[in-house]
Amino acid sequence: MTNVEAQISNLANLANGEMQMFTPIFEENQDVYGYFTLFKLDKLNENEEKYEYTILDKNLNKVANGEFVDVAYKKIYSRYYTPEKLGSTLLLTKRYNNTTGRIAFTSSRLLNLKDNEITEPFYFENDLVLKGNRDISTVKKVQRDREYINVPVAANNGYLVLQLRKKIAKKNPLVLKFYNLDNEKIWDYNFGGDERWSFYRAVSFQDDVLYFTYSTRDDNQRKKEFLQIDANTGKLNFRYALEHSNSKYSYSYTTKKIDENTVLTGKISPYSITGYNRNKALGLFKIVLDKDGNEVFKKHFLWEDAEEFIEMSKKGKMDAGYKLFTHSYFVFNDNRIVVLSEKYKIANNILLGPHVKTEDFILFEFDSDFNIKNAKTIAKDMSKFSSSDYLFGQYLNNEKDAVFFYQDYQKEEGTKDKNWILGIVSIVDGEVNHEKIPMSSDDYYISPYVAKEGYILLREFNKNSDFDKIRLERLNFY
């Protein structure tokens, strides 16, 4: 890696308060726009807290900062969701809840990146968008009886309001509502069905379409459908029957829209009315749908089909009892797919009880017809008590290539000490390259973050938080 000096050398100098958040800001296509920091400055009184935010662009130049005052409710805790970018606007949403979860609600603001103006808070109640904060004297009584939490999610230069069911709810929410940035409702969509047995799940939002799964039950028949909805109009583009009572498999998947087609890829397990079971995974699959939802390609890949490249049982077991946990599906624009998985198992210890062990990464490489071309092992040391060493990944070169990053703690020869290693694995022009960078420091903790294409952001900070430096590093394959 090649060092690129940062414009901001010390995050701790951006504000005097307690840092609540440092996180990337993503464009709607998942490119990195920049970074958002949030500090809690002061508690002004029993019911008001003062915050300061700073926005850095992808080159770490400071482009905006400001302050705002937010409400605090006694014995109700709060945290901000990661901000979502919509054109030149950031959606900031804060979730409030008590320890039991009986009281739970959200409040949002919009931050204009052009003029650095931030709106007063607003929230959703039934079909209304209300400005300001909830009444402090009645909020607990009112929210205790609410069955759903309204959560705005960025999509198509506006936001969907999704309803999350609370424990006291007896019915599932089945209506979507879409608002523009002026808080005007543009459309709603009703999935229909029996509210007791039907429910939907958001899958992904891409370009001007929204993807959902919709599960229903009619007598003893169960069905799971994959839906594409037009984000501009709220009209159903298509529905595709993914699972039903006579299906062979249940599916866990990710989606990607390539031109007018939709690609679904993921894992399969034996069909169950409860859905996919990762402990019984049998292999992988790829389905391609056209713009009308017609199936133009479907293929399953069973674990034993990989025997030319790697030893696995029909049930996905490998040496020493390891199985594969999948972290990412890289679906390239030429329809090739690379599946990134990590070997894991649940081990038992007399003193510690059950705990997770992870080992090497495995890359399954498929051509556009979902024929396996290779299964490459990315070696790393065993990790105990960590659910994963995977950090994050991103596409490169207009989604023709990809890179992912991981952490590894390698033992020093002759000692029990371990060095913190940053692993970088690139998939460029069909070639897999692996680089390991020593990151250990006696003085600082080093944390990597996703950055603009061809770079990684490294944050160095110590326990006392009087040193908190960020810098960009250029990756060698660029």
UniProtKB/TrEMBL annotation:
Which organism does this sequence originate in? Answer: Jejuia pallidilutea
Q: Which InterPro entries match?
A: DUF6770
Extract the Pfam families matched here: DUF6770 (PF20559)
Q: What is this protein called?
A: Uncharacterized protein
